[in-house]
Structures are given as C-alpha cells and as structure tokens.
Write a structure and sequence with these properties.
The complex is a heterodimer of chains A (264) and B (630). Chain A contains six helices and seven strands; from the N terminus they run H-H-H-H-H-H-E-E-E-E-E-E-E. Chain A is of the alpha+beta class and 264 residues long. In chain A, the strands form two sheets. A four-stranded antiparallel β-sheet of chain A has the order 4-3-6-7, with no helix packed on it. In chain A, a hairpin with a 5-residue loop joins strand 1 and strand 2. The relative contact order of chain A is 0.09. With 630 residues, chain B is mainly α. Chain B contains 22 helices and seven strands. Chain B is globular. The chains are: A alpha+beta (264), B mainly alpha (630). Strand 1 of chain A pairs antiparallel with strand 6 of chain B, so a sheet runs across the interface.
Chain lengths: 264, 630
Amino acid sequence: MTNGQDPTKTAGATVACAGAVLLPLPVPVRLVAAVALVLFLPGHAFALAGGLGSLPRDAFEYRLFEVATSIAVVIVTGLGLDVTAWGLTRTSWAVGLGAVTLVLLAWSLRRPRAPATPRPTAARRRPSLAAVAAIVVTIGTAGVAVDVAARAARDQDAAIDVVQLWVIPDEGGEVRVGVANHEGRDASYRILVDDGSPGGQSYDIEVPDDGTWERPLPPAASNAPGTTRVTLARPGTSQPLRSVWVTQPQAKVGAPAGPAQGAP
Amino acid sequence: VTVSPVDAPPRSESELGPVTPTRNAASSWLTATRVMAVGLLLVAVADVLGRAGKSVASGWYWAGIVVLVVTATTAVTRRHATRSERQIVVMCLGAAFYLLKVMHSPTYFTFVDEHQLLRSFIDVGQTHRLFHLNPLVQAYSRFPGLVEMTSSLATLSGASYHTAGLIVIGGTRLLLMAALFLVLEHATGSDQLAAIATVLYAGNTNFVYFNAEVGYESLALPLAVVVLLVVCRREEDGGGSVRPRGVAAPLLIVAVVVTHHMTALWLVMFLLVWAAVTKLTGMRGRTNAPLPPAVIATVCATLWFVFVARDATVHELGPVVTDAYTSLLHVFTAQVSAKRPFAGGAGPTDPLLERLVGYASVLVLLGSLVVGLVLVVRQRPMRALLVPLSMLACLYPVSLVLRLTQASTETANRSSEFIFFGLCLLTAMAWQWGARRFLRSGGLVETLSVAAGSCVIVAGGIIVGWPPYARLPGGFQASALSRSIDKQGLLAARWAAAELPAHSRIVADSSTRILMGSYAQLDPQLGVSEGVPVARVFFEASFSPVARGIIEADKIRYVVTDDRLTRLLPSNGVYFEGNEPDAGRHLTPLPSVSLNKFATAPGVMRILDGGDVKVYDMTALLPAGTGMDP
C-alpha cells in the first residue's frame, strides 16, 4: 500500500524542509519544517520504499506507521551521525535526515511497482461545515485551557521577587561583583563593600527589571589579605538584603575607582 | 465471550448492529471531544486555583478528570459507535491527559526526570556527541533515543528543549493510544472491547504524569506497542499470504532497544512468550509471526546491553531491585513493619474519599482480573496474544505486594504501565461479560456502570501512583517533586551555569542538585564518602571535622543551600537522600544552624546570595586543581 503518493513531491518537500531549517528563518517556521523532517518525511519515504510491506490496513494505520518509523529512522540516523566527524549539528541533522529520506525515495522509484493489494478503506468524506466548526471549537477550548494554565504559571513566577548578589574571584586576583534584579520592576540598590579599609565603600546603582549589573572591584586600599564582604541594601536603609564575601589570601580589592553605573 | 477469527479483518461497523447515520456518528464523537475539552478547562481552572493556594482546586481537578473519563467511556461504549469513532475518542483521551500534564508545567520543565534528561540535552547541544556521562542518571547517556529526537528537533528549529520535548512526547502519546487500540482489537476481535480497554489503560499509575514526561520510557513504550502491532499484522497476513512484509519491525525494535532498558526488556519477554505460546500450543496464529521479531529483539537488546549499556543499566536498576528485595525480606521476616498505605513523608495525606477510591480501584481490578482470567481460559479458540497479555495482568497482585515497603513501591509504580497492557484488557472483558450477564447490553445502565468503573480505575491510578502535593501546581514545598522547582532555584541554576565551571562537584538538597546538575552541568555528589553519608555535611550543627572531611574526601567545590528547608518538612520524607539522618522520620524542619554553619566556616566563601538559595565556595579547602570531574 503506497497510499497513492508521488515520491517526487515528497522529495521536493524534503529538500524544502531541509533548506528551511538551515536558513535564518523565524523559529515557528523552522519548527514546522523540523517537525516534518523529523516526525513525518523519513517514515513517509520509508513507507513509499516498501518498508511497511502490507502492514497498514487503512489510511489511519498507514499514517501511524509513518510516524513511528520516522522516529526510528531519526534515532538510527542520529547514531550514524554520532560516529561521523560532523557529529550532531544543525547542518549534519538537516543533511543527514534529508539524505536518508531522499535515498529511500530513490529506492521507491527503483523498486518494481507491484499492484497494491486492495484494502478495505473508508470512503473519503468531505467534512461538513458544522463538523469543521465543532473541531475548531474543540481545539479552541483545549487551547484556551492550556493558555489559562500557562498564564497562571507565568503569573506565579512573576509574583516571586528574587534579587541575586554575587561576588566571584577570578583567577587573576580580580573580584567581580554583580546584581541581578528579578523583582518585576526597575529597582535601586546600595552596594556596601567592606574590604577592611576604614569605612569601606558604598555606591548606589539602578538595575532594570530582569537586568543585571556587574563590574570588577579595583584593587583594595588595604594590602592586607583577608575577607572582602559585599552587602546589598535598599537605598536609605541599612538592613542588608543580601550578603556575600570572598577571602583572598593575596587580595588587593577595595574601593571602586569611579562611580558605578547608575550611581548618582 | 466470542471472538472473531484471527485472520479475519476487524469487525466492520455493520457487524455491530444497525449502522447509525453517518451524520449522527460524526456529531457523536465531535460532541464527545467537545465535552472532553471542557474537562480540560476544568483542570485548567484547578491549576489556577492550585497556584493560588486554594483548597478547592482538587475538587475542580477531579471534576475535570471525571468529565474526561465519563465522556470517553460513554462514547466508546455506545452500541452504535463506529470503529473510527472509538479510535478518535481514545486518541483524544490520550491527548487530553497529555495536555493535563502540559498544563501542570507549561513554561519550563518541572518534573525530576525531565531535568535529569535536560543535562543530556545540553551536553549533546554543546558537544554535538552522544554518550556523554550524565551524572544525574547514568542510563540516559547509554540509551540516547529520546536525546536524539529532542536534540534533532531543537537543533533544527531553534526551539527550546522544552518545546521540542513536548512535541515529541505529544506525538508518541497519540501513537501509543492508536497502536494500543489496534493491538487489543487484534487480541479480541472487538473494537468496542479494545476501546474500553484502552480507556482503562489510562488507569495505570504512570499514565497521566510519568509517561507524559519528557522521559525515555515515554518514547520507547509507544514504539514497543507499534512493534506489537506489526507482529499482529504479520500474524494476520500469515495464512498463506504472499503480501510483502517490509522491514519495519527490525527498525522499530532497534529504536526501542537504544531508547529504554526496561521497555526493551519487556518487549523481548513479551515477544518470546508470545512466540513460545504460538509454537508450543498450536494456538490460533498459525504462522509463528512473533518468532522473528522476538529473535531480533533478543539479539539487539543483548548486544546493546553487553557492549554499550551494561554498566549504566546495572548502576540504575541494580539498587532498585536489590533494595526492593531486601526491604520486602525485612517485612516478611518481621524485622520491620509494612508501609502504611497512602503514607510517605510529611506531605498531606490523601483525603478519606480519595483513599477509598484508591482502595476501590484495587479491589475492582483484582475482581476483574479473576473474572477476566476465567474468560480467557474458557475461550475457544484462544488467541496466542491473549496468553502474554494475561500473564502480564497476573503480575498485578505481585505489584501490590511490592507496595508493602517504600523501597519496593517504586518498582511497583514503574511496572504499572507494562502490567496494565494485559490488565486493562482482562478488566474490559470482565466488565463486558458482567454487563451481558446481569444488565441489558448496550443500555443506559451498562454505559453508566462502565463509565463509573472507569472513573474509579483512572482516578485510583492517579491517587495510588502520584502524591497529592504533586498532582496540581502550587507554591514551593520541600522535597516535593515538581513543587520544589521554582523561580528561585531556576535563577540560581542559571547563574551557576554562567559563572561556575562545568563538572564542578557540588552537594545540595534533592531538588537543587537536579537543577544545578542540569542547567549548570555541575556534578552532584551522593551516597557515602569514606563510610559517612555525604548528606551529613548538612546535618552537622557546626562545620565539624566530619563535615570538613566529607568536603575534602569527595573534593566538593561548591555547597548549595536552600533556607526554605529550615522552614518546611520534606514532603517525600527526605531532604537530601535516603541515607540521611532521620530519613522518612523528620518531625521538625532542618535546624537553621545546619545551613548557617557554612557562613562562619573558615576559608569558605559565600559567592551567591539569591535569597533562600546560597552558594558557598569550598575551593580554599581543597588541593589546587581538584573539585572537578573530567
């Protein structure tokens, strides 16, 4: 059973999909092409090449086997690509899957076209307008359900305010301090650096929502090894929001050389 | 029970009685799917309420489940329903339950196995090579089928691994329902019986959540059922047919073998039993269609196990089996008492009504199993396929015994999706026999009875297999599967991915270490270090020599703490792992001093303060150049 498909059209679709995923197209467009290239076309070519034999009893089963064998072809192709020099890259996947599909299609052209055994298949009926409308309503309702759940998930995340403060000692002895603002709004902070020097250093910054601020701390005024403690607070308050520290045996960290980004 | 001959095509619509007009048939399944969409909407409302912390959420949730199951069961049980209608309805039910899981975590991965697999996705995305060691679950690196599928789709499209995984598993869910229906139809010769059984398959404890996760079993299982369908069709074609047979079976078998160990083992055993029964008993099937695929599956699985996946498989499944055996032995020798049903950790126990439904589902399944077995034995002629299916169903009581201990409960849960292939069919056969024996066949009472029974089975499967805190999304809970994955932990993991060297060794609680191991590609340390459980590093009241010794011996470079553990009890009973002090018996949250000690430990740096989640750098305690895996 070949389902009356023309291999040349499938070859054209394969080349188009393989090309589409390699072009800098929008993700949704590439996703459609990738789904066809991964979940349908290899199995379709496999079926046209006679790989399914007489297994499918009707068009429904034909499609079922096409999808299943498509998955299997992708898995086997991936194992093959893994041992090549190219590995599993976008290009190798596109070329590999495209090539396998085209080879199967070429095989389907070469094999003798035995008359397909007639199978009992349901007559194709054009769906009524009411049926189409009902299907649209069903899919739409399910889509609304998923959208409602997704919005609730995003809202729940948005309601969680997170501020991160970090301090990272680099290999060169430099210390980077950073702040990430995930509070759902632009925010002002005061950073206090206690490096052992009298009074320490403080400076004010503004970080946009979902933005980060980071810069290295210049060498300290004090040359004594020890702990550099960095504290984050709201402007005008002394209550620390976050606190981190590094211990540098040979550290030379201290006051910033100039005003920080966003400093008044 | 009557069955049609093996080599006969499935019963046509006209054999089931007067054919209803096409238009009515079409409007019937369309109505069913529309109502099922409304059921999904109810579950979506439950999700919203759950995230808002409303206790009424579970009521909406169960209402949605009941609408889904009753609608599907009613639609497929109707006497005049067509075969196509039943096919569509069971596939829609599978899709609806899949969307239920998607709605649970629609924006990013929240299930444990998905995060563990994410590590492999990221590894392959960065190195373009398979078979990288995954320190979270070693077997993932040796069974790369799903990694290949998801990586290919994500790489080709530019979509996220989350989106790509949802598409792959969504597609295979439809495959599973369609193929299962056709296999069971082949086994019974009745599309009505097959459809009811397929609806009942949704009652296995893993159907709604675990097998809807982006997990390797979720991909392998549908492919394995398609292999069975191939064998069914070969069996039908065997009676003197000269039809070409194709090479789909070997291709699909290879795909199953390289995707999941347990499914491959199940497939091999199933095909061998099926082939042996066909060969030895001369039951109907005439040609031994299962034999070649059984041989191919056995050879492929053996070769893959021996040359590729032996260590990873033994590493993953070995402890599960031995722990189950040991814990059961302790129960039977009265060294420990059996686990109390519906008890586990500090999470809320199921309400009484839910527990009753859980018990009822077990009783209904056991009773149906007995009746179903009698019906199978009395069948003349008996189909060979019914034997392995019945043998699978007979494992159900054994799986109940495994629920006597916490350690073996996981084995019981993980076997459910395999056992139900047979159990759902025998249950459906028993119900059909009961309806014909005691009720007016095709009547309203029969339809309602089957619908009510299906609700009990499906709801019972969810109740028995999935803890109440994990069924719906909501606020953060400690050690509570998907409920322990939230924005704070994710942001910390993403920070670690940007700032910390990959493969650095870390210790963290059970949820945080999965996030750090996946997004940040850090290597969590577990188990025992020089005879001391690694988890003790968190339970020492001070940075004692024991804690320091663990850090130094295991070369742990970073310690990640979550202050929420000092305010919450662990829902599943353990904060870190099973060998921690007071595992399963925590009465109070972790003392603050247990986590705060790192802040005063000499040489320890706190390099991230993300609110509750903090990262401590232990590099100063370690010899230079250590603390990272190769």
